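pasting Outer membrane lipoprotein-sorting protein for the record, 211 residues
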Amino acid sequence: MKKTIIIIAAAFICMSAAAQTPAALVAAVKNAQKNTRWAVYTIKRTDTLMTGDIRSMSGNVFMKPDANDSVLGFQFRAALDGDYHEKIYDGHLGYLIDHNHKTFTSVPDADRINYLIFGGGAGWLVMPDLIKVDTAKAIGFELTKDNNNYYLKIKYADFKPEDVTRRYKILTINRKSMLPAAMRSHQETLGKVQDLYYHIEDIRVNGSGDA
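structre below
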């Protein structure tokens, strides 16, 4: 009996140790994302720009996984606080909504869909890693934790042609939901820092009915 208890305890220790590896953590996040039908969140983004200026914004985002979409892999609707513009992607078309003038512009070109996110405005509030964690092109990982979160640092190679160094992303992963709750993207160009920090302040995932 004592030997059996020791074997079970040893197995539990091995499983716990395995769960602490970056690969095991990423697998757990992806599993949680598979069970995510939709998420609605309020978010604050704070950017440190290469000029030394600080840029802050906040707003609301709806995200929904879309396995049939080859462009982003998810749908979204995003709105900045205090702004009358909204950005939407339904898995087929992108839309730029102007609530003030009650008009919209469609974006059918797949090459321009990414502009909805990276081209400014409400799209800057979309945090793709919440729905689709991305570790592509990583050259290394560091994992730490506290009582509430895991912190996964994902390192990337320097981009020498433009002297871009210290490239990394840090995902803050909630230990209860196993979903990213914050993301920091960092790089330095000729010694000048660019640091983009997304922090989800409130989130609702799944629930009854559709969002």
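The chain has three helices and eleven strands.
The radius of gyration is 20 Å.
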